[in-house]
Design a protein that fits this description.
single chain, mainly alpha
């Protein structure tokens, strides 16, 4: 059997088990697990446990969430963004839980908490966080447009899809500072450089970290496969749709940060991609929803980065 080309290998994942194995054994993964054991449960585990309990009342949740003022503030700002908003503004934790439901609030709390786990500093880290927030906003709007039920999971996947980059950056296992900005902001590019340098990529590392933190299996798979769409589409179901929407949001975030206005040439390019076709998101639908994408993108940047 002939060997796969580099394009085919990127699409289908020629050595998935080997890449995942090297990611799991990396210093970045070990450091991430240590961070998770020490910090993540203390910040959010109690709240997430309550949110997972169908018998927990709004009163049970209010106190623990409000004890962390930063978490409470960000939760309300995310809940009021276009990606989640359903009309009347959410004014309190009680409103957020009542309006969004336990599952959505749990996803927001988990995402916000995990997002802050790797406080790497510098221009690259700032761009990575801005990208995660932007993708989370865009994929949330796309998910609601597509009528995807698990918008909270999509928010998580968008916010955390590049968590592996922050983990690698935090421990110095991968240097991104020497890469041109255009490379860092070109989808389906950096992960190939990571594999050449370390034997694993940020998608595999991020999935390893999230699996260790016991995130939902579908979220872990979506993060793991967002540079292996062939794998996701072969599995189909929610995974296929989630990966397609995430990849589309990845493209749109980069565009919104450089040229927010939608021109017809870019719209043609975007809707001719396999992701849009897989989700059956037409040219007219994306054009109609573009103002919401811009607004949600700006709101999420303010909520999580500003």
């Amino acid at each position: 059997m002939r060997s796969m080309s580099s394009v085919e290998a990127s699409w289908f994942g020629d050595d998935l088990l080997a890449v995942e194995g090297r990611a799991a054994q990396s210093g970045a993964a070990a450091a991430a697990q240590a961070v998770g054991l020490k910090v993540f449960p203390a910040v959010a585990q109690h709240v997430m446990g309550l949110l997972a309990d169908p018998h927990a009342t709004i009163g049970d949740l209010r106190g623990p969430i409000e004890q962390d003022a930063a978490l409470a503030s960000r939760l309300l700002r995310v809940a009021n963004s276009v990606a989640y908003s359903r009309g009347r503004p959410v004014a309190s934790i009680d409103d957020a839980v009542l309006r969004l439901g336990h599952a959505q609030v749990r996803a927001i709390v988990a995402g916000i908490s995990a997002f802050g786990m790797f406080p790497a500093e510098g221009e690259v880290a700032e761009r990575l966080r801005a990208h995660g927030a932007g993708v989370a906003a865009v994929v949330g709007v796309l998910g609601r447009t597509w009528r995807q039920e698990h918008v909270g999971d999509l928010f998580l996947c968008g916010l955390l899809h590049d968590l592996g980059k922050l983990a690698a950056l935090q421990v110095g296992e991968v240097s991104y500072a020497d890469l041109p900005r255009r490379v860092l902001e070109t989808p389906d590019c950096v992960h190939r450089i990571e594999r050449a340098r370390t034997g694993y990529d940020h998608a595999a590392l991020g999935a390893t970290v999230l699996a260790g933190w016991r995130f939902d299996r579908d979220v872990v798979k979506t993060v793991a496969w967002h540079h292996r769409p062939g794998r996701a589409y072969a599995e189909g179901g929610d995974i296929g749709v989630s990966v397609a929407l995430l990849r589309l949001a990845d493209q749109i975030d980069y565009r919104l940060r450089t040229q927010p206005e939608l021109d017809q040439a870019y719209l043609d390019e975007l809707t001719q991609r396999g992701e849009a076709s897989y989700c059956d998101l037409s040219r007219d639908v994306i054009e109609a929803v573009w103002p919401k994408l811009r607004q949600a993108h700006a709101e999420m940047q303010a909520a999580l980065i500003g």
